[in-house]
Amino acid sequence: MTKGGIGRRGLLAGAGAALLSRPLNAGTLAPALAVVGGGIAGMTAARRLRALLPAARITVFEPLPAYHACYGANQVLGGWLDDARLRFRHDALARLGIGLVRETVARIDLDGARPRIGGRAFDHVVLAAGVAMAAPAYDGYDPAATPPYWTAGEGILPLRDRIDALPDDATVVMVVPGAPYRCPPAPYERATAIAARMQARGRRGRVVILDAKGSFPKQALFEDAWRRLYPGRVEWLPLDMIGRVTAIAGDAVITATDRFRFDLLHVIPPQTAARVALDSGLGDGTGWVPVTGPAFRHPRAARVSALGDGCIAGDMPKSAFSANAQARVAAATLAAEFLDLPAPAPDLFNTCYSRLAEAETVLVGGPFAFVDGRIKAHDGFISTPGESAEKRKAQTEEAVAWIDLFSAGIFGAGD
């Protein structure tokens, strides 16, 4: 099994195991806990807190009737995965005795001794509301005409339809923001999937990536794949070559040095923590939420933990795998605090799979540790160019199996 994959830590089942193995008096402890967000971090936190604190009164606030996963969305776009495998409901919460409130939380009131949501006080709030799209700093961008296709999985289907409707020899221009943003390698996996989709349908055409950065994750792996699998179909242009994007005018993107015509424009806007985080005063000057320690506690709001894509988690990328890991560690730490028990050692890990073709997948990942108050990566691993076809195929099978196992552990029937 690939290092870091399902066989080793694929579901991060160890976080909190030390607590679960002890005879606890948790049945008599009933803190009121709120989870804002029913995605990966929120669902994981709610379920782990229920397992560790059986009598806790847990409420999840989530406005959407179902969760449509972003992980795997590019594989749907490439034609390699059925979108139905990325759609989930929150039915497990009721079976676990967890309350579900179908509403958007606009603000967490932090003025009193305990945080309040809609006038209701809680002993602790877990903020896992994801990200918000920020307005790009250039003229002429209309999000209604050019949706970002980045906030949830459902955006991938309209994008797929628009790609399939393109004429032969079309140009897709992607505008990629500076870091940080949700899933660092995803724009380049998406460009790969678009190229693969056009090629599989016998269409000429290319993808031009206008990047606000000078490098990107897994760069050698993606560039190798573009040369081998999709020659002439993907062109990456870094910031120092084109300058910043300044405007969109008609069917062209204008940069500081050039003009790029498109048949389809795909803008990935810059991102921030969700509005509820910023409107509650939990963000910092970067637009993200700072956290400290294994409880992922806000430094100025001791009864709030922030998890997932909206928080500043040191070296951990904004990924589904990271969000799940953070939620497990935070839940175990918070439960230990409520029970006045030593917290288990934090076990933080991430693996990020990127699909390159029907039978080609590469990955990067490794463990993380708290060092001097900051989350630092160590002993990481990454695929290398030139790996055998057998290894890439095995990694593809592992990645697809991970999607199903990972999803079942978060949205499945119950612990």
TrEMBL record:
GO molecular function: flavin adenine dinucleotide binding; oxidoreductase activity
Domain of life, per lineage: Bacteria
Sulfide dehydrogenase [flavocytochrome c] flavoprotein chain central domain boundaries: 159-269
Gene3D superfamilies in the record: FAD/NAD(P)-binding domain, Flavocytochrome c sulphide dehydrogenase, flavin-binding domain
One protein family per Pfam: FCSD-flav_bind
Domain Flavocytochrome c sulphide dehydrogenase flavin-binding: 344-411
PANTHER family: FAD-DEPENDENT PYRIDINE NUCLEOTIDE-DISULPHIDE OXIDOREDUCTASE, PTHR43755
Entry protein name: Cytochrome C
Organism of derivation: Zavarzinia compransoris
